[in-house]
Structure formats: C-alpha cells, structure tokens
Amino acid sequence: MECHKIVEFLKASWEERKQYYTEEWDMTNVPNFILTTLKDREFGFDHNGNGPRDRYNEFNSPQDLKNFLQKRCPFATYTSVSLYENPKKRKNWIKAELVFDIDAKDLPVKNCDCKGGEVCESCLSDSKELLMLTADVLKGDLGLKKINFIYSGRGYHIRVLDEGIMKENSVVRGEILDYVSGSVLPEGIQWKWNNGFPPIFKKRAKKFMKMLSEEKMSEIKNINGTKASKVKEKMDLIIREFENGDLSTLKKILKSKGTESFLENLRMYNASILDGKVTIDVKRILRLPSSLHSAVSMKCMEVKKIEKFNPLKDAVPKFVKERNI
Fold first, then answer.
1. pLDDT tens, 21-47?
2. I need a labelling partner for 17 at 20 to 30 A (CA). Which of 66, 104, 183, 287 fits?
3. Which residues span the domain enclosing 217?
4. Catalytic one among 40, 46, 126, 275?
C-alpha cells in the first residue's frame, strides 16, 4: 500500500493555547445548535492532558463561556450531547443528539501503512469517505435531515438533531447503530428481502474487500496464504457476485468454514468503523466545535461543506503555521 506522509501532530503548549483562545477563537465558530441550547448542556474540561475530569459545569450565556475559555485556556473542552433541565447535576434529561464517531487513527483497515494510532492524509481521506457513506444511509434509509458534520481533530463526528430521534433511548440507538454500521449479518427472510445483504452492508463490504491485503486476509481464521492469494486474484468477480447475494466463488475458494470466518471478519470490520459507545451513551460528552484539540494542535470545527473540506488546510491553527517561521 502507498503510505502518505504521516502528519506530525504536536502537542500545543500553554502559550500556544493562550494564543489560540485570545487571538483566534471566535464565538461565531460555535455551532448555532449548541449556542441556542447552551444553558441546557453540561460542559467538561481537561486542564492538563489527563482527561476531562472537570465535569458538571454549566454556562448561562455565550459570554460566560468565552470568559472561561480565554482565562483558563483548557487543554480540551467538551460539551454534552444531551440536554438537561439541570445540567450541572446532569438531572432531568430532556433529549440527546444521535451521534456517530469515526476516528481516522483507529480505522481497522487502511489504504496506507500507518500503524494503530498514527494518522496520515490518506487515513483522514478514508475517514471522510466513511463519514459521507454513513450520512447517506442516515438520509436515504432513515429519512433524517438535520445532520451536522464536525471535524474532531483526528476524525469526524456526525451529530443528528431530528426531533424524533433525539427522544429515543439507548436501546433504539443501538438498533440504529447496528443498521447504519452494517454490523449484523442478515439471515432468513431478511436475506431474501435484501437480495443477500442490505445496501449499506454491501457498500462497506466492497471497500473492505478492496483494501484487504493478502497478508491481512491470511491472518483470518481458516484462511491460509494460498487461499488468500486466490481470493485476491478473483476479488473483482467476488465483489460483483457479492452485490447479488452470490457467494459461490468465495465459497469455492475458502470452503464453508473459511467463508464463515471471512464474513465474520467483515462484520467485525463494519462494527469497528463507528465507535458504538459514543452512539449509545446519552451521557457522552464530545469536543466542543471551535475548541482546540491540544494533543494534536488541530481545531475541532463544524464543517458546512464536507465534500470540499481538507483538515490539513482548513483545521490548522495560526500558531501551527507560525511554528516554523
């Protein structure tokens, strides 16, 4: 695989954080859906890089938030996806955004040779592609409309604000996650209705199969190097058959147990693209769009035109550009 240059994400110093919040940070970069519900949200802060241990904070006005950020210049700033009547005690839950988290550094299969935890331009591109595929399912299959994109520093968040979905509990959110991620293998009547696999499952499967190397495939249970080589050789045919619910070529090469292992690996890949805990947990806090991701010196920001967005240009703070001057 081609490996692009790994992005050198450096930690922001206190002086750089101070510069960011006093010279660059602007209230207008906080999404309107947060500003209009500011009083109903819990805020959390990481002051030294050890995690958001300062929680249960509330702000009564945008000016109060601004004063806090410019005075304390936190290492990281978070806000709840839930709205509460009493956010400081996290009581009297009203509703919560439906959230999906795609982290570029944690993608299970990549188009590059980055190791776990590393990120390059290719990783970020892959995560954006998966983000847009997920959004297409939310819009096309589930009919959701109020979908917001957030660049989180090393990946993306989708924050859904449709009124009906915000009132749903964790059980329903888990069912939505299973469908959107394509992490459940269909069986019985589901198989017949979907011509083998649901559309989202097929789309993710095609990407997985194209990216999966012989080496990685041979690590799957019941698949040796010879079988992996034959599957890779016939991959275009296997993908075409797969789209029609036909596994004949795959089964011919891998036999029954190998095919089962391959499909289970595919299911696990789908499940691991999205961080399920973030979707299900209505008490989750996420990075505040407009805040600084100090661990990597990148801006967390709302993205209005996702197709044109390039984080390595659009989410780089001024102090980073000035480091080498």
1. 999 999 999 999 999 999 999 999 999
2. 104
3. 209-273
4. 275
